[in-house]
Specification:
This protein is of the alpha/beta class and about 325 residues long. The protein has a single domain, classed as TIM Barrel. About 35% of the residues lie in helices and about 20% in strands. The protein has 11 helices and 14 strands. Strands 1-2-3-4-7-10-11-14 form an 8-stranded parallel β-barrel, surrounded by 5 helices. Strands 5-6-13-12 form a 4-stranded antiparallel β-sheet. It has a two-stranded antiparallel sheet with strand order 8-9. α4 (about 90-105) packs parallel to α6 and α9 runs parallel beside α10 (about 275-285). The radius of gyration is 19 Å and the shape is globular. About 45% of the residues are buried.
């Protein structure tokens, strides 16, 4: 396993901020994750083009950094939006994703993250953490009754399962052929319903069903520790459960205080999970891919990217890796 940072691409043509790459290199971070939406749009063909991926990989190589994860576009009306709604356009969208996977595989990127939701991460507010740091807060009671944006976006569990499994079965052969590992992010927040949508992968049982329905070795999980903790389950046991099945393909190493219906995100050393035991569990199950802090609290004097918060989390993670990592 290795440290990783998520970074956005800017400008035309899209590139990393060199200062962000210098930051990663100076902190000994060997990998980054990119958001596919920075390179993929319907205006440019709805697929990832090889020349765009090659350009950013060359920029990474100048800093001795590799591309560890590509996140498929997840926002409204992006690459496979109609597939979420079960519309006829999903046939072409699945082909677009398959082409994107083929291109990613050509460059040796090991993991592709994806999500499956219409409201996505909805309903969070700003709370206060240790020392007055700004943290994400979620109160289910405050958003429980908010309706979907459009009536067609309300989906029961059976509808959600049909549409998600159709899509996954359509793209999994391309992932296998490209030698890619898919990493599905669980529903965050993992409440039973959100804006009319049944949150079918907001539980351990839902995630286990996903792997039983599509048993391909390419079908795996972004084990977002914060989201798993938000479920109110034993995080360490969940690492062991999915790690033993070789289903953990990406990790967000972060923590929270509380669980649905109410939680706050926290500093990496200030939440409810035993992070030492978590790192030990990843080592024991043989986890071998990227591990990133994902969200960090907003601390005094920080930059918009959160360099100070990320540096704190990276140092904590590196120390744990040296204790328990391979």
């Amino acid at each position: 396993m290795h440290l990783c940072l998520g970074m956005r691409l800017r400008g035309e043509p899209a590139l990393f901020d060199p200062e962000d790459l210098a930051f990663a290199a100076q902190f000994g971070v060997p990998g980054v994750k990119i958001c596919g939406s920075d390179l993929i749009s319907r205006e440019t063909g709805n697929v990832l083009h090889a020349e765009d991926l090659e350009r950013i990989i060359r920029q990474l190589e100048e800093f001795g950094i590799a591309l560890s994860v590509v996140l498929l576009p997840q926002g409204r009306d992006t690459q496979y939006w109609n597939a979420r709604l079960g519309r006829p356009e999903r046939e072409q969208e699945a082909l677009d994703v398959c082409e994107t996977l083929r291109v990613i595989g050509e460059f040796g990127v090991p993991v592709v993250e994806w999500t499956w939701s219409v409201p996505d991460v909805f309903g969070s507010t700003r709370g206060t953490g240790r020392g007055g740091a700004g943290v994400r807060r979620f109160d289910y009671e405050a958003v429980r009754e908010i309706p979907p944006v459009e009536p067609c976006e309300a989906m029961d569990a059976d509808t959600m399962w049909e549409r998600m499994l159709w899509f996954l079965r359509a793209i999994i052969p391309a992932a296998e052929q490209a030698d890619l590992r898919l990493a599905l992010h669980p529903h965050d927040p993992p409440c039973p319903w959100l804006r009319g949508e049944a949150r079918i992968i907001g539980s351990i049982e839902g995630l286990q069903r996903l792997f039983e329905e599509v048993p391909s070795p390419a079908n795996g999980l972004n084990f977002c520790q914060g989201t798993i903790a938000e479920m109110g389950v034993d995080v360490i046991e969940a690492i062991r459960l999915f790690g033993a099945q070789d289903r953990i393909n990406h990790v967000h190493f972060r923590d929270v205080k509380g669980a649905v219906p109410f939680f706050d995100e926290s500093f990496i050393d200030d939440g409810d999970t035993d992070m030492h035991a978590a790192m030990r569990a990843y080592s024991e199950v043989g986890y071998r891919y990227a591990m990133m802090p994902d969200h960090t609290p907003a601390v005094a004097g920080d930059t918009p990217y959160g360099h100070r918060g990320r540096a704190y989390a990276l140092g904590y993670m590196r120390a744990l890796m040296e204790c328990y990592g391979p």
